[in-house]
Design a protein that fits this description.
This protein has about 300 residues and is an alpha+beta fold. It has 12 helices and 6 strands.
Length: about 300
Amino acid sequence: MSISTATAPATDAATDATAFEQHRGMLLGVAYRMLGSFADAEDVVQEAWLRWSADDRSDVEAPRRFLVTVVTRLSIDRMRLAYRQRETQVGPWLPEPVLTDEGRPLGPAETAAQRETLSLAMLRLLQRLSAPERAVFVLREAFDLPYEEIGGILGLGEAHARQLYRRGSARVAGGHDRFTTAPGKHRELVEKFLAAARTGDRATLEGLLAQDVTLWSDSGGKVSAALRPVHGAGRVARLLIGTIAKQSSVDFRIAEFNGQSGLQVRLGARWQVCAFEIADDRVTGVQWMANPDKLALLTPKD
């Protein structure tokens, strides 16, 4: 899926930059949803800018479509490499959380479907998909592109794009409808979780968890964390309370990650992130991000 990078004739740099900036939010949104990494998404968008500013665009009639094509294909190339690298990571791999209450542009998030494709829960599930399946799913679900356009972006026929979407949807169907909790309800449960964790009330904390809750910890093999998913309300509650109790100094802050309330947690001198998957007024999943490589933009400034 290579894209021509022929040198362009001299053009108005300011016009080039303006045209690109008009679509930057969408491009970041595409790349982040496909890669699950904000840092990688920024790298992809930067590479797209270099191609945009260097290519001969005399025959480009639709800049948005051209740029989305470039970003999608670059993301697929990077995704395939990332999937191979994640197979050797120590412990689970989780998507990189993004503080969305600071106005980071990640494409449209007006509809419930668009917000769900941005959620950490969905980004975790999308790891089940092949790179082409994930690309089609993202472009259809988050950006509502027609199959004909998606096929053109990926160099596929329309029928093949539809087939990939159906297959990808089926592979995430087991959890696809579990994460549509109203923002106010989501925050309320996070506040209750915080109160129980802060006081060490294991019984109350356990009562907030679904019986089949799962906790995943992403340490990147660089800090101490559970190396396998932990299942069950009792085991997850004991692990969380025990982890907090071992620390001489702990702090909690509620913040918005990927459009949903979560916690910034300081254990000793190290800040980490706790994100929640919620359904039917219970926490069904806990994503604990301890990997320092994914926390640089998430550490409170004060």
